[in-house]
Amino acid sequence: MTIKYAYPKAIVFDLDYTLWPCWCDTHIRPPLKAISSSEIIDRSGMRLSFYPHVESIIQELVENNVKIIGASRTATPEVAKKILSLLKINNRAAITYFDTLQWGAGSKIKHIKLAAKQLGMTEELKNGNFILYDDELRNRDVESINCLFVHVPDESVGLTKQVFQDGLERWSKFSQ
């Protein structure tokens, strides 16, 4: 039995330790190259891929017309962009699934507000139609702008289907 969920207008994903198991600005040593559609390797031989449930979650969001936003405090956005360009979902570069990417220091509040403005979704944000999935508890401050914060608690497994679905269930209560 498949459970049908309600979806917000936009889902925001942190990248490091949410979508993949490392910090791209300290663990990755460019250059990067793809060794398959779902795995890349860096100069030191470190292999990297998305956490196991990430691809299906992104596909589900696309199928349900949910805007996908990346928000990262990374100091090396070019590395994050390269990772998202090399990793594939359904033979398409993962980066193409993101409607906007926000990088840099500072609060995720700034990233989310800028993304909402770029996508013409300021009212949707005000109305509670955004969720942020993130491994860092400090980013729960996004709830001050009416964006639901969902903690990704275990960096060894990252974003799982269960954490994702629990977030959707919380959002359906949060948004009422």
UniProtKB/TrEMBL annotation:
Gene3D superfamilies: HAD superfamily/HAD-like (3.40.50.1000)
SUPFAM superfamilies: HAD-like (SSF56784)
Molecular function terms, GO-annotated: acid phosphatase activity
Domain of life, per lineage: Eukaryota
PANTHER family noted in UniProt: MAGNESIUM-DEPENDENT PHOSPHATASE 1, MAGNESIUM-DEPENDENT PHOSPHATASE 1 MDP1
Protein name from the UniProt record: Magnesium-dependent phosphatase-1
